[in-house]
Amino acid sequence: MTRRYDIDSVEAVFTQFLNEGKYRKTPERFAILRKAIELHSHFEVDALHMAIENDGYHVSRATVYNTVELLEMAGILKKNVFGQNTAIYEVNHDNHIHLVCKKCGKIREIENTHIAGHVMQLDPEDFTPESFSITIYGVCAECASKDKN
């Protein structure tokens, strides 16, 4: 599932967050934001850092980690941990299901409006659901076919 984001809108959200928190608005932070949006996939912070460096834009690893933390605080990125104790980030979007292969680690996303309707209708006591993400672990078709051979 590939999503396209209006970078101007996302930058406006980040700018407002930085202003309200009295954080500095640096070119490095916005370069990191743009690259995270451009990746269109789940990523580790070190992979994001490498992608920025490969574009010829030098920024310290610490700046990337700190900026990713700010982007998560701003609600732009979402952190996931899919069993391997490594934080995987994605652009935050509501109500989707992750399919994670236990063999190769590949992550795929699907939407299921039927499940979404049920989850959002849950009425837990003293809790108001706003969004959800479900993770299903299994074996992808490619790994399953390798196992048969």
Commentary on this structure:
- A hairpin with a 5-residue loop joins strand 1 and strand 2 (87-91).
- The chain is α+β, with helices and mostly antiparallel strands.
- The strands form 2 sheets. A 3-stranded mixed beta sheet has the order 4-3-5, with no helix packed on it. The protein has a two-stranded antiparallel sheet with strand order 1-2.
- Helix 3 (45-54) crosses helix 4 (61-73).
- It is 44% helix and 17% strand.
- The protein is built from 6 helices and 5 strands, in the order H-H-H-H-E-E-E-E-H-E-H.
Write the layout of secondary structure elements.
Elements lengths: L6 H14 L6 H12 L6 H10 L6 H13 L3 E5 L5 E5 L4 E6 L5 E4 L2 H9 L11 E6 L2 H8 L1
Parallel strand pairs: 3-5
Antiparallel strand pairs: 1-2, 3-4
A few lines on this structure:
The protein has six helices and five strands. It is an alpha+beta fold and 149 residues long.
